[in-house]
Amino acid sequence: MSRRSLQTGPTTKRHASARRTRTRDEDEDLLAQADASLLELVDHVLNRGVMITGDLVLGLADVDLVYVRLSALLCAADRVLGPGAKR
Amino acid sequence: MTGLYVYALVPASVDAPLGTGLLEEELRVVSLGPIAAVVGEVDDTPSIAPASLRLHDEVVRRIARSSDAILPFRFGATVTSEAELAEGLAPRVEALATTLHRTRGCDQMTLRLYAEGGAPPPTPQTAAGPGTRWLRQRSAEQASSVPELARVRAALALCTRAESVELHDSPPLRASIFHLVERARLTEYRSQVDALAAAIAPARVAPTGPWPPYAFTELE
Predict the structure, then answer these.
(1) Contact (CB<8Å) B217/A74
(2) Does A2 fall in a domain?
């Protein structure tokens, strides 16, 4: 099975002549939008959605596999882990 | 590790080609009676990275386009076998089918409500356990009211099928409001949100979506 690369990298081509220099405010806006977009994605994909009852394996970043045994995981993470773990 | 990465629950009738998953594995459907799970066989567990989260979301969205109802799984849900998946879900299949049915023809819209001032009440001092303290805190927050929240909810109630509200104690973010909206009414919904701007100023709402119904997977 081939594995899709999950890494992002810089683009290889640049078109400097066609680019307009952005202002600092524009750069900050772009960064803010990118962060907001990623935060929204993280909140939806990691914080919500169905989890299953029984034995569940969660792969968490570079941390060793976390093996979870819970009787009722069909709930939000804050109910499982407590509100402190969510924010 | 070889296992099944679980992407979503869909109606049992879904049989369209679903393409590939997060690690380019072929997706397949595992029947669970009235519902089915869309899974992919993986020999590794994807790490949490922006790109992998986006891919997970892309796969869930693709599945959603092939199905009129969907309950997305949270990123990283992996089981060792179909039998384990069936065993884990068996006690709740009927409830899951009901919850799944509620999402038919709908997308999720998310609103973040920002408002200055009105700091949340202090955490109640009590000898109760952390769970009870948290519930009491949530209750106190509800009671303290965010007036703009009531206006937002009232303005959108007629064009949404379901709603879920989460209060936050990190001003200016005061609340997240999740709406299940029929796809045919998304334009109407957006118009209503736009019209809210003047009504709740200086507070504001920031909408995102449509999303698969990530926030509507709790059992009814």
Answers:
(1) yes
(2) no
How many CB atoms are closer than 10 A to CB A15? 7
CA atoms within 13 A on the CB side of A32: 6
Taking contacts as CB-CB distances below 8 angstroms, the residues of chain A near B130 are 82
Residue A3 located in a structural domain:
no
How many independent structural domains does chain A possess?
1
Other Cβ atoms within 10 Å of B180 Cβ, number: 19
pLDDT at position A80 is 39
Distance CA B131, CA B142 (A): 17
Q: Can you list the residues of chain B whose pLDDT is less than 70? A: 1, 118-128, 135-145, 220
**Closest Cβ–Cβ partner in B51, B71, B176 for A6:** B51
Distances (CA, A) of B9 to B39, B79, B140, B144, B216: 9, 14, 36, 38, 12
B201/B117 Cα distance (integer angstroms)? 13
Radius of gyration of chain A (CA): 19
In the prediction, which pLDDT does B20 show? 96
